[in-house]
Design goal:
The protein is mostly helical and 141 residues long. It has one domain. The protein has four helices and no strands. The protein starts with a helix and ends with a helix.
């Protein structure tokens, strides 16, 4: 049981880091700012706080933090991760438009972040599964 909570915390931690990295890369791609010294991210800072809270809540509601038992569930989980990221991106855009009424928040920024998040979160989850499988094999020896 203790291992489950630790693994969940690791997943949440990496999800938040990847969400931040995805939006930072998307921001640089959108505005062609690949010089880290020139990143006027201040207008987007309040949205990042909102996104970092919203996305893990949606991930939890979609069941991404439940333990996987076997390999067949891992394939289903990768599809579920993709669906959760897609839903998070759509909800983010809708909430920003409806509640914040910000036209400056670029739709293409969310598209870039969505694509980057899809790739990175699936890779990280795969690596977590691999490390867990290695650890399980070492315990059984």
């Amino acid at each position: 049981m203790k291992n489950y909570y630790f693994l969940t915390l690791v997943k949440v931690f990496f999800d938040i880091i990847i969400i931040l990295v995805s939006f930072a890369i998307a921001y640089m791609m959108r505005f062609n700012l690949f010089q880290i010294a020139y990143l006027p991210i201040i207008p987007y800072k309040r949205f990042l706080v909102f996104i970092v809270i919203l996305w893990p809540i949606i991930f939890n509601m979609m069941g991404l933090y439940k333990p996987q038992r076997d390999k067949s569930e891992r394939v289903d989980s990768m599809l579920l991760i993709s669906m959760a990221i897609t839903l998070s991106a759509v909800v983010t855009y809708l909430v920003i438009i409806i509640f914040f009424q910000e036209a400056m928040f670029s739709y293409s920024l969310i598209i870039y972040a969505w694509i980057i998040s899809l790739v990175l979160i699936n890779i990280i989850r795969y690596l977590i599964w691999k490390m867990r499988a290695i650890k399980t094999c070492q315990k059984s020896e």
